């Protein structure tokens, strides 16, 4: 395992320990609302602080981009930037729904190079290093081999905070729904992307995400043999927040289904209009 990935795994497990302990006493947590339907608990902050402390202790010159505390350090002075979501799926966590994750990605010269997505409730650790493959615990991951959309299970994320593109999303959902075997929306984009890498989903789409929701999961998918792009298949997904992913055959089919529903506003949002 790459030394930087080893540190990221330790940091994710430390954060997972904080999350698991807090999950035993959910009614005692202090919870606040960052925006409509966007909750944050003291656990998010504690997990993020634990991750950052461990990463910067090992690599003090690296910069940080984290969901709760924002940017730290000068990415212009460092070749490395850690992208962190300490608890992706906070709403699930607060309701005792065990689908949430710790997500840690590392950019090296603006290229994703290391990835960890950890589900502490299930003790499932997804990892990847660029050029070295993706793994679930000790097992090598490959995306699914399904080629017919009608046989596929597709993941997504409903708009929950920003509803500007809700009508376009519903049109996409309505078009995809009868074409596939099923659609799932568990509520943690980082973990959903990891599921694509593991072949549990054949594809995934969502828009309005942040870089910390996607960075680690997207590297997992590409290292497992899958494809990731924005709503037109381009590589701007980390900036635009709009993402489509899947095995190579399903990826193209999802793009074709979604293309007619891309509004000028969505195209503008992802910088391709």
Automatic annotation (TrEMBL):
EC annotation from Swiss-Prot or TrEMBL: 3.1.3.25
Catalytic reactions of this protein: a myo-inositol phosphate + H2O = myo-inositol + phosphate
Domain of life: Bacteria
Cofactor annotation: Mg(2+)
UniProt GO molecular function: inositol monophosphate 1-phosphatase activity; metal ion binding
Keywords: Hydrolase, Magnesium, Metal-binding
GO biological process: inositol metabolic process; phosphatidylinositol phosphate biosynthetic process; signal transduction
Residue sites binding Mg(2+) per the record: 67, 85, 87-88, 213
Family of this protein: Belongs to the inositol monophosphatase superfamily.
This protein's name: Inositol-1-monophosphatase
Naturally occurring in which organism (per UniProt): Nitrosospira multiformis
């Amino acid at each position: 395992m790459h030394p930087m990935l080893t540190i990221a795994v330790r940091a994710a497990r430390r954060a997972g320990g904080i999350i698991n302990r807090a999950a035993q006493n959910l009614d005692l947590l202090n919870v606040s609302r960052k925006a409509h339907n966007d909750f944050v608990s003291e656990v998010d902050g504690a997990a993020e602080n634990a991750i950052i402390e461990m990463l910067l202790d090992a690599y003090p010159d690296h910069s940080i981009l984290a969901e709760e505390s924002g940017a730290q350090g000068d990415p212009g002075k460092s070749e490395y930037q850690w992208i962190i979501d300490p608890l992706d799926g906070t709403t699930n966590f607060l309701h005792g729904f065990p689908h949430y994750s710790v997500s840690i990605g590392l950019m090296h010269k603006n290229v994703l190079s290391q990835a960890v997505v950890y589900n502490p409730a299930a003790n499932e650790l997804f990892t990847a290093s660029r050029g070295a493959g993706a793994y679930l615990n000790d097992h090598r991951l490959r995306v699914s081999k399904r080629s017919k959309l009608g046989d596929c299970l597709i993941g997504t994320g409903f708009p929950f905070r920003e509803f500007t593109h809700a009508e376009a999303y519903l049109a996409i959902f309505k078009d995809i729904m009868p074409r596939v075997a099923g659609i799932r929306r568990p509520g943690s984009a980082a973990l959903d992307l990891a599921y694509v890498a593991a072949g549990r989903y054949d594809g995934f789409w969502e828009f309005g995400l942040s870089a910390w929701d996607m960075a680690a999961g997207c590297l997992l998918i590409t290292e497992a043999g899958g494809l990731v792009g924005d709503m037109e298949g381009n590589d701007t997904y980390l900036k635009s927040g709009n993402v489509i992913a899947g095995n190579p055959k399903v990826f193209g089919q999802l793009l074709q289904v979604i293309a007619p529903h891309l509004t000028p506003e969505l195209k503008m949002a992802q910088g391709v209009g």
